[in-house]
Amino acid sequence: MSGHGPAIPMTSRKCGPLKGEARVPGDKSISHRSLILGAMAVGETHITGLLEGEDVLGTADAMRAFGADVERVGEGEWRVNGVGVGGFAEPEQVIDCGNAGTGVRLIMGAMATQPITATFTGDASLRARPMGRVTDPIALFGAQSYGRDGGRLPMTVVGARQPIAVRYTTPMASAQVKSAVLLAGLNVPGKTVVIEKEATRDHTERMLAGFGAEITVEDTDEGHVITLTGQPELKPQSIVVPRDPSSAAFPVCAALIVPGSEVLVPNIGLNPTRAGLFYTLQDMGADLTFENERTEGGEPVADLHARYSPHMKGIVVPPERAASMIDEYPILSVVAAFATGTTNMPGVHELRVKESDRIDAMAKGLRAAGVVVEEGEDWWAVDGMGPEGVRGGATVATVLDHRIAMSFACLGMASQKPIHLDDGSPIATSFPGFEPLMAGLGAQLVRTNT
Ligand code: S3P
């Protein structure tokens, strides 16, 4: 997996109205966690709606390597027979997490307090990403790690033989770091405490409670204080994975910028720690409504109804909203290009260390398509060109980043001239079926040179 396959160049052209229903895949964050917690429970966990993208399939393979029995029984339907907290076997081979930061960081946390050693690697994108943010806290439990310079993969983690409970304040707003510490805390006697100053996605906390762990969350002056009592017996669950709001963002945003469009995106998880993009779009004047709001499997869910919105205006996106839409800034920058006025996006330094430097990647491609973008270390701003004003006519680099690839594909759907993607293959990490789904709505996104 770490060897990247052949590039798949794609071209996205201006299209007629996007119409119809977009059934997007299962939530990536929840899918990873379902497999990992299923592997740490005693007995059989049943999962439906699992995202079968490359990232999550890598986590399934990893859980097998640590001794769990993981089986696909139908489309999106999986069974995991767990080994129990503290029951991981030592993998015989290197764990290759491909492109998945969530996969590698959560699994490192989960194994860090078990008496085993594992070596992790990934693709060129993942090998460039910082792992110190996880190896620092797991060292407090007693784990050791040996990676490349700057705390990069490949990296070997030696789990703590006699782990001790930890109280840890996350230095950056990161659900991956928070989750790695909580998963490490599972196999430790006593209470592990994680404090986060800004709330990040809380799927790990919700799911740990669902699996029967004792976990409390308090809002204090210090921040969000999460306390987990170690060494529970996790009870297997039946998990229905909601559809991914981060994937829904693409058909929703494409509908807002392509004239005449009207798209329904049903069953989208609207956990408040994930839904920031949709509120931001509404603040910009998008014709976007939530229908049939309900709760499913402990997560708020709604159907999203998006219609072409030629009167959107640039805004300052509140920085305190950043964590709840961190993966959606690339596609927001595309929408911003079709609004009038400037969209300012402050407080987003974490975008620099995602699957790519997402500010840099989007700024380069948008500028090549005729859009004015300004940037600083932790902010960027896009000047709106109006609903029909983006020139396009550019070849853009997708830099091994699925969300960059899908964002530029959407840009091409409403630009005057086509957008060429140097490589659309990263899309498969989180949204297999993106091309036929968008084509079914009316997009003209085709593979070129193949
Ligand atoms: C994720 C957390 C976020 C997000 C990523 C998924 C998770 O990363 O960008 O796509 O599932 O915990 P950070 O923890 O680095 O913010």
Automatic annotation (TrEMBL):
<dbReference type="GO" id="GO:0008652">
    <property type="term" value="P:amino acid biosynthetic process"/>
</dbReference>
<dbReference type="GO" id="GO:0009073">
    <property type="term" value="P:aromatic amino acid family biosynthetic process"/>
</dbReference>
<feature type="binding site">
    <location>
        <position position="101"/>
    </location>
    <ligand>
        <name>phosphoenolpyruvate</name>
    </ligand>
</feature>
<dbReference type="GO" id="GO:0003866">
    <property type="term" value="F:3-phosphoshikimate 1-carboxyvinyltransferase activity"/>
</dbReference>
<feature type="binding site">
    <location>
        <position position="354"/>
    </location>
    <ligand>
        <name>3-phosphoshikimate</name>
    </ligand>
</feature>
<feature type="binding site">
    <location>
        <position position="176"/>
    </location>
    <ligand>
        <name>3-phosphoshikimate</name>
    </ligand>
</feature>
<feature type="region of interest" description="Disordered">
    <location>
        <begin position="1"/>
        <end position="26"/>
    </location>
</feature>
<keyword id="KW-0808">Transferase</keyword>
<keyword id="KW-0057">Aromatic amino acid biosynthesis</keyword>
<comment type="similarity">
    <text>Belongs to the EPSP synthase family.</text>
</comment>
<feature type="binding site">
    <location>
        <position position="29"/>
    </location>
    <ligand>
        <name>3-phosphoshikimate</name>
    </ligand>
</feature>
<protein>
    <recommendedName>
        <fullName>3-phosphoshikimate 1-carboxyvinyltransferase</fullName>
        <ecNumber>2.5.1.19</ecNumber>
    </recommendedName>
</protein>
<keyword id="KW-0963">Cytoplasm</keyword>
<keyword id="KW-0028">Amino-acid biosynthesis</keyword>
<feature type="binding site">
    <location>
        <position position="176"/>
    </location>
    <ligand>
        <name>phosphoenolpyruvate</name>
    </ligand>
</feature>
<comment type="function">
    <text>Catalyzes the transfer of the enolpyruvyl moiety of phosphoenolpyruvate (PEP) to the 5-hydroxyl of shikimate-3-phosphate (S3P) to produce enolpyruvyl shikimate-3-phosphate and inorganic phosphate.</text>
</comment>
<feature type="binding site">
    <location>
        <position position="358"/>
    </location>
    <ligand>
        <name>phosphoenolpyruvate</name>
    </ligand>
</feature>
<feature type="active site" description="Proton acceptor">
    <location>
        <position position="327"/>
    </location>
</feature>
<dbReference type="InterPro" id="IPR013792">
    <property type="entry name" value="RNA3'P_cycl/enolpyr_Trfase_a/b"/>
</dbReference>
<feature type="binding site">
    <location>
        <position position="403"/>
    </location>
    <ligand>
        <name>phosphoenolpyruvate</name>
    </ligand>
</feature>
<dbReference type="InterPro" id="IPR036968">
    <property type="entry name" value="Enolpyruvate_Tfrase_sf"/>
</dbReference>
<feature type="binding site">
    <location>
        <position position="129"/>
    </location>
    <ligand>
        <name>phosphoenolpyruvate</name>
    </ligand>
</feature>
<dbReference type="InterPro" id="IPR023193">
    <property type="entry name" value="EPSP_synthase_CS"/>
</dbReference>
<dbReference type="InterPro" id="IPR006264">
    <property type="entry name" value="EPSP_synthase"/>
</dbReference>
<feature type="binding site">
    <location>
        <position position="28"/>
    </location>
    <ligand>
        <name>3-phosphoshikimate</name>
    </ligand>
</feature>
<feature type="binding site">
    <location>
        <position position="33"/>
    </location>
    <ligand>
        <name>3-phosphoshikimate</name>
    </ligand>
</feature>
<dbReference type="GO" id="GO:0005737">
    <property type="term" value="C:cytoplasm"/>
</dbReference>
<comment type="subunit">
    <text>Monomer.</text>
</comment>
<feature type="binding site">
    <location>
        <position position="327"/>
    </location>
    <ligand>
        <name>3-phosphoshikimate</name>
    </ligand>
</feature>
<dbReference type="Pfam" id="PF00275">
    <property type="entry name" value="EPSP_synthase"/>
</dbReference>
<feature type="binding site">
    <location>
        <position position="174"/>
    </location>
    <ligand>
        <name>3-phosphoshikimate</name>
    </ligand>
</feature>
<comment type="pathway">
    <text>Metabolic intermediate biosynthesis; chorismate biosynthesis; chorismate from D-erythrose 4-phosphate and phosphoenolpyruvate: step 6/7.</text>
</comment>
<feature type="domain" description="Enolpyruvate transferase">
    <location>
        <begin position="14"/>
        <end position="436"/>
    </location>
</feature>
<feature type="binding site">
    <location>
        <position position="28"/>
    </location>
    <ligand>
        <name>phosphoenolpyruvate</name>
    </ligand>
</feature>
<dbReference type="InterPro" id="IPR001986">
    <property type="entry name" value="Enolpyruvate_Tfrase_dom"/>
</dbReference>
<dbReference type="GO" id="GO:0009423">
    <property type="term" value="P:chorismate biosynthetic process"/>
</dbReference>
